[in-house]
Amino acid sequence: MDILTGLMIWAAEAITLAVLLWSRWFAERKNYCLTWSCGFALHGLGVALVAARGHIPDFMSIELANAIILAGVGGWIAGLLQFDGRRVEGYVAVPALIWIAGMFLTPVRETFAYRVALANMASATGYLIISGLLLKHAGTSRSTRQILAALIGAQAVCSFLVAGSTLLAQYTSFQTAHVAGWLFVPTAICFMASVMFAGKLLAERTEQKLKILAKTDALTGVLNRRGLIDEFHALRAHVDPSKPIIAFLQFDLDFFKQINDKFGHQAGDAVLVAFAEIGQTSLRGRGSFGRMGGEEFASILRVKDMVEAASIAEAVRLTIKRQTVLIGEHELKGTVSAGIALAVAETANLDLLLSAADRALYTAKNCGRDRSAIADGADISIVPSADRRGEAEEPGDLRVSQQVVALRRIAAIGQPSAVLP
C-alpha cells in the first residue's frame, strides 16, 4: 500500500469519527463532542487534500491542507480542555501557527523535505500538548488517560522520526519517502488505538456521571438518601481517633406545606433549593449534606462529641432563619427544626441513628419548632439556643444532660456566626 492510499484511508476514518462525534453531540449537547467532531472533520479534510496532490492546485494540497490538518489537532486539544472542564486557551492554535509561520520562509515553502519536516514537527507538538493534558488532569480515569497519553506520545515520536528522516534523506516526493511510508504504519496503529481508548474514556465519564446521578437529588443537586447511606458507610470505615463519633443531623423545614399552599409548588421548590445551598455552605466540607425526601434534609459527619454536633446543627438552623428567599415579588423567610443522633463510629448502626434522629426531630417539632433536639440514649433534650435566651425552659420532662448544659455556656458567649467558623 502506497502512502497516498494510506492518507485517503486515514481521511475516511477521521471523517467517520467526526460524524459519530457529531451524532453524540446532537444527542447529549456536550460541547467537547462538537469540538472533537470539528477537529476530526478538519483533520480528515486536510489529509484528503494532501492525498489529492497533483489533482488540485499546490496551494490547496500543501499550504491550505496542512493548515487545516493542524487546526484539527488544535480542535482535539480544545475538546480535551472542555472535557476536563477547563477554559479553552490560546495555545490550541500553536500547531497551526507553527506551520503558518514556516510557510513565510521561502526555503521551507519551496522544499518538499522541509515542508514534510515542518508539518510533522507541528503535529508532534500538538500530540505532546494532548499527552501533557491527559497526564496533568488524571481524575477518576487515571489508568485510561495514562495509556492514551502513551499512545499519543508514540504518535509524536513517529512524527519526529518522519521529520528527521525526511530532512536527512532530503526526499523530494511521497513516492521516494520510503522510510516515512514505513513510519506511517505504526502511526496509524497508534491513531486507531488512541481512538479506542478515547472511546473508553468517554464511556468511563458516562459511567461516572450515572453513578453521581444515582446518588444525587435531581431538584437540589445535593446527595439523595442513597448517597447519604453511602457516606455513612464511608465515614464508618474511616479511622479518625480525634473524631470518634458519627453524628446524624436531620432537618425539616417548618410549615413547608403552607408555603406550597400559599405560593405554589414552584416557590416551594425554590425554598428547597435555597436550603440545600445554605446547608452545604454552612457545613464547609465538615460533613455530607443531602435530601432525605420531601422537605427533610440530613447531614452525616464525624464529630468529637455531642457539643460539636449540636453546635453544627444550631449553626445551620440559625443560618436558615436569617436568610431570605426571593420568589418573584415575595420575600420568604423559613425556619427548620433539627433532630440529632450520635453513635460511636465503630459500632454505629444506621437504622438506629435514623430512628433516634427522627424521635429527636419529632420532639423539636412538638416543642414549638425552630429548634434542635438531641437524642442521648432514651433521653431527648432540647438544645439551648442563643436566639431564645431568657425564654422559659422547655417542658420539664425533657432532661438536660451535662453536655447540653455546656452548650448553654457556649451559647452565652455570643451569637453563632451565619456559617461555621
From TrEMBL:
* CDD domains the UniProt entry points to: GGDEF
User: Which SMART domains does this one have?
Assistant: GGDEF (SM00267)
Q: Where is the GGDEF domain?
A: 244-377
Q: Which Pfam families match?
A: GGDEF (PF00990)
UniProt keywords (A-Z) are:
Membrane, Transmembrane, Transmembrane helix
- The name this protein goes by in its record: diguanylate cyclase
Query: What PROSITE patterns does this protein map onto?
Result: GGDEF
Cross-referenced PANTHER family, in alphabetical order? DIGUANYLATE CYCLASE DGCM-RELATED, REGULATORY COMPONENTS OF SENSORY TRANSDUCTION SYSTEM
Quote the EC number. Answer: 2.7.7.65
Q: Please give the superkingdom of this protein's source.
A: Bacteria
Q: Where are the transmembrane segments?
A: 6-26, 33-52, 64-81, 88-106, 112-135, 147-169, 181-203
Q: What is catalyzed by this enzyme?
A: 2 GTP = 3',3'-c-di-GMP + 2 diphosphate
